[in-house]
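Human: If only I could read backbone structure tokens as easily as an amino acid sequence. Take your time, and here it is.
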Amino acid sequence: MRVSPIYDDALSAAIQQIIAEHLRSEALYAVGLAPTRTALFVGPPGVGKTLAARWIAQLLDLPLLTLDLSSVMSSFLGRTGSNIRRVLDHARANHCVLLLDELDAIAKRRDDATEIGELKRLVTVLLQEIDRWPEGSLLIAATNHGDLLDPAVWRRFEAVLEFPLPTAAARAEAVRQLLADECVDPVVTEMVVAASDGSSLSALEGDVLAARRLAAIGDLALDESLLEIQRGHIERLSQPERIKLATRVLSQTSMSQRQVSRLTGVSRDTLRKRADDGGTDAQ
């Protein structure tokens, strides 16, 4: 089960421009320009970087080749540079979209005193290979840790796309897609959206999938299993975190104070006090 790409307007526009440039490359070449050759996707895990690369390749009708850089780190570091060159040579010879995943596994800052000289030389190899990437092809690199990248790496990419954690609107759309035609109480879906604040769409998808499984094996309604999954997350929170969540749920959903209290374990007296203090609207 996989939702369609859901991104904010700015990110969607940046992705669509890359796609349009390659689909209409003749128009660019006619005026002495070329489509974007290299793009860097930066953001925390689960926000859709790999999904975006897959989506771009699909719309360009090209195969997606993925190289997980963390997996090619050889115990004989000198071989890793040769391995990278071989993969990029293969990708250049075969029209495709190449995704270099976990870029920070190799392209770390070269002033990092903890890294050995051979690994620093690997960064140089990678920069040279990116510089050699031909016009008309697309190389995408992805990292969860942009702060670890060597400054020279950033300059090699023609486009840098930031993938933030999803907004409430994006999470609501994801829940709508994931539940499809399932009959679920709107209050429950509101609760899932509110409780997933700060989560990635990947984590949200995992919760919905777990709820579907729980409903199937436990002979539960999907509403009940969705709340059970959320309850499991909430039980692991500290009391201040529960209060913060309960306040957010009350402000963002149509759930009553009684329902929120039962779900979060926060007393109704505490919820009333928060409402009286302006922390939320009373229900």
Summary: The mean pLDDT is 86. The chain has two domains: 9-162, 168-276. The longest strand covers residues 138-143. The chain is about 55% helix and 10% strand.
